[in-house]
Amino acid sequence: MEADMNLPGRLKQSDSQDIVAEIIDLLRARGDSGYGHEAVTQLEHALQAATLALENNATSELIAAALLHDIGHLLHELPDDAPDQGIDDHHERVGFHFLKSHFGPATYEPVKMHVDAKRYMCLARPGYYETLSEPSQISLRLQGGPMDAEEATQFESNPHYQATVELRIWDDTAKDPEKKTPPLEAFEPHLRRAFAAKA
Ligand code: FE
Fold first, then answer.
1. Domain map (residue ranges) of the chain
2. For residue 35, how far is its CA from the centre of ligand 1 (angstroms)?
3. How far apart are CA 71 and CA 107, in angstroms?
4. Which of 12, 60, 86, 185 could disulfide-link to 193, CB 3.0 to 4.6 Å?
5. C-alpha to C-alpha distance for 53 and 49, rounded to whole angstroms
6. Which of the residues in the chain have pLDDT under 50?
7. The CATH number of the domain covering residues in 16-196
8. Within 13 Å, how many C-alpha atoms sit on residue 76's CB side?
9. 41-55, pLDDT tens digit by residue?
């Protein structure tokens, strides 16, 4: 079963006056939903991933990718526990289709590939699978399991694959209920720079 690619009404228009403001509104309005079975909300998870990007001196485009990598979860109407029901929500594709209208490839490519990056690292980094949280191990099975060598070679041919691996590590780490982050507003300048960088 695939996620509905339809976007909520107010985000359907790609000619929005201020898409960055709308994205921030969406994160505020829907970000308190659960992040699967993890101990953080969607907004906390997004802020922690973006903060880790900031702490690692990432570009604004990659900070935007970290903040928005799971926006697909907020753009479909499937329940938070979809994986429990054997449903892959394909949130990376929903997010990618939305972001590519507004941002450049340095933002939307890592978002598109961040689930594949988990499958890739299960093959390329021995011991990685064991570091994944249980919900992430469960969703991995729905997402196709570890890559084979041919898929990994294909993955490495994407010019954004190293940035995607970085994003994946931040994603996996951004599940700490105690971590303090800057507020959402602090990331607005990075979203605006990433938006302006669209080729
Ligand atoms: Fe995530």
1. 16-196
2. 8
3. 12
4. 60
5. 6
6. 1-4, 10, 13-14
7. 1.10.3210.10
8. 23
9. 999 999 999 999 999
The pair phi, psi for residue 37, each rounded to 5°, is -100, 15
The answer to whether 195 and 19 have CB atoms below 8 angstroms apart is: yes
CA distance linking residue 125 with residue 123, whole number of Å: 6
Expressed in angstroms, the distance from the first to the final Cα of the chain is: 34
**CA 111 – ligand 1 centroid, Å:** 10
Angle CA 181–19–25, to nearest 5: 50
Q: How far is the CA of 16 from the centre of ligand 1 (A)?
A: 26
What is the Å distance from ligand 1's center to 157 Cα?
A: 23
Rounded to the nearest whole angstrom, what is the distance from the C-alpha of residue 168 to the centroid of ligand 1? 8
Residue 70 CA, ligand 1 centroid: distance in Å: 5
**Model confidence pLDDT, tens digit, residues 138-179:** 889 989 999 999 999 999 999 999 999 999 999 999 999 999
